[in-house]
User: Fold this.
Amino acid sequence: MESSQPTQFAQYIPVLFLLAAAVGFAGGSLVISVLLGKFAKSFKAKDAPYECGKDPIGEGTSRFSVKFYLVAMLFILFDIEVVFMYPWAVVYRDMLAEHATRNLILGSMISFLGILFAGYIYALQKKAFDWKG
Assistant:
């Protein structure tokens, strides 16, 4: 009795072909660029780093203030809050139809926003949003 269903391994053959093509393309591109790069003519102006048409002066990297990183982390924190609110808003109307979870879903979002608001107040008190400090 032969079954017309393909085996589980046979279902992954197209994925393996795609993986082989991706690895082959990436590896082939690297090998070709190395081979062609050996024949390229090199001179000082060509090997200099290009920075928007300006001559590179000074060190390549500059130091950022710790305030910049603090504001960036706060932005990520409040951005993640929006990521949590979208799925909640999508399922909220459907969850209201179920009487058992009506208060649970609203309470969980209110507690989440309360903790987030407490963090916001703390950041304001510590002057974390002050750019001049």
Remarks:
- Residues 25 and 118 are 51 Å apart (CA to CA).
- Residues 66-125 form one domain.
- The mean pLDDT is 82.
- The chain is about 65% helix and 0% strand.
